[in-house]
Specification:
Strand content: 25-35%
Number of helices: 5
Helix content: 10-25%
Strand order of the largest sheet: 3-4-7-8-21-20-9
Radius of gyration: 24 Å
Order of helices and strands: HEEEEEEEEEHHEHHEEEEEEEEEEEEEE
Structural class: alpha+beta
Largest sheet: 7 strands, antiparallel
Distance between the termini: 65 Å
Number of strands: 24
Number of domains: 2
């Protein structure tokens, strides 16, 4: 029997009266409650995200009484680079906090490592204000929920965690598609626990694991890297898509000669569940070769004119289009923009948090940053005012193919 039926998302805890009054007071004087749990970010960092995060498929508000500890990370971490180049993997993310959230499952998790039950205590690692779900490496040791805990980022973790956190929860979109009821999804919570068991197995390969055979078998598949669901997510189900595609195109769009501006179709951002935060943060970046003067209009306002890029960070419901002057210099020219995750230079690695004062006395925390990228391209041709024949070759989906327009 699947333990998915046993695990029920807990109800969001109610604020205690004193805490509620304190948060209301902060709001009244203009201080965001999220600042309780995250340090002030650098100028290039994203704006304050919504006051909640997704953990184990459940929406957790940052004023929830179940958040029992928020640990400030040591200052030894190198500053986060303002560069958004997606190919660089050097340096370290700018981690500011580790949050601990009480498990609060309706049923007790039922896998044991030797005699120690693997807890479903949840952690969130805060990187530039963005919450990534963390997993305990050793359930036998105290973690960030301990008031005495101190943590620092020490760099990439051992390779044996990579398959688990890349293909387990929450980075596997085949397990947990985003939907309106994601915070009520029992299967999502179950896969979170499967992943926790797998992390413990990778840490202690010679220990004995007992309890739910289904959970143990699936966790072992994650450790071995042999499950059927291992696929190239960057190609099949990337973190960010546009109108359901990784690379959206509106090419050879025919524009009426009377129009002064040629405008592409509207591109809308859609997601797959590559981390617990469905509102993946990204910046827009013009692609090389885009003609100077092309404009990017995001949510109804002009954001940037090529070749200049904007540092503004976006997440959530985002729609945009590309437009160019209906002039000869822009005819048949392709304007393209890339959506680049702000942490792409640190992506596709598992990162390790350790207690620098007592490494052997506290459990390690590991977390994964997914790679996020998408692109949109637009080109146009003017309508033939003399009524001549124009042949536009299109692909099977009906999109025009660049360079194949005959007159």
């Amino acid at each position: 029997m699947s333990i998915a039926k046993k695990i029920i998302p807990p109800k969001t805890g109610r604020l205690k009266p004193i805490l509620a009054f304190f948060l209301a007071l902060l709001t009244a004087i203009g201080v965001s409650p999220i600042s309780i749990f995250a340090q002030e970010q650098a100028e290039a960092a994203p704006p304050t995200p919504p006051g909640f995060m997704y953990l184990d498929g459940e929406r957790i508000y940052l004023d929830d009484e179940r958040i029992i500890n928020a640990i400030s990370v040591g200052t030894a971490v190198s500053p986060f680079s303002a560069s958004i180049a997606p190919t660089s993997t050097s340096g370290k993310p700018n981690v500011t906090d580790v949050l601990s959230v009480l498990a609060a499952f309706a049923a007790e998790p039922d896998v044991y490592m030797n005699t120690t039950r693997l807890s479903a205590m949840r952690y969130a690692v805060v990187v530039d204000g963005i919450h990534y779900e963390g997993f305990c490496a050793d359930p036998q040791l105290p973690g960030p929920e301990n008031p005495a805990a101190v943590y620092e980022l020490v760099g990439p973790a051992a390779a044996n965690y990579n398959t688990i956190l890349r293909y387990g929860f929450p980075t596997n979109p085949y397990f947990s598609q985003i939907g309106p009821n994601v915070d009520d999804n029992e299967d999502v919570m179950w896969w979170a626990y499967v992943t926790r068991v797998a992390v413990a197995m990778a840490t202690y390969t010679n220990h004995n694991f007992t309890g739910s055979e289904e959970t143990i078998d699936l966790a072992r598949d994650l450790v071995n890297g042999t499950p059927f669901w291992v696929k190239n997510f960057d190609e099949t189900l990337p973190a960010i898509m546009l109108n359901g595609e990784r690379e959206a195109e509106d090419l050879d769009n025919i524009i009426d000669q009377s129009e002064t501006t040629a405008q592409s179709e509207t591109f809308s951002v859609t997601y797959n569940r590559r981390n617990h935060n469905i509102e993946n943060h990204f910046r827009f970046e013009w692609s090389a070769g885009t003609p100077a003067g092309a404009e990017l209009v995001v949510n109804g306002s002009t954001l940037a004119t090529a070749p200049t890029n904007s540092d503004e960070v976006f997440w959530g419901d985002v729609s945009f289009h590309i437009q160019m002057p209906n002039e000869a210099a822009f005819h048949n020219q392709v304007a393209a923009v890339n959506l680049v995750g702000i942490h792409n230079q640190y992506a596709n690695k598992v990162w390790l948090m350790q207690n620098p004062n007592n490494e052997a006395g506290f459990q390690d925390i590991v977390f994964f940053i997914p790679y996020m990228s998408a692109s949109a391209a637009f080109s146009f041709v003017p309508e033939d005012a003399e009524g001549g024949l124009r042949i536009v070759k299109r692909n099977p989906s009906g999109q025009g193919l660049p360079g194949l327009c005959l007159k």
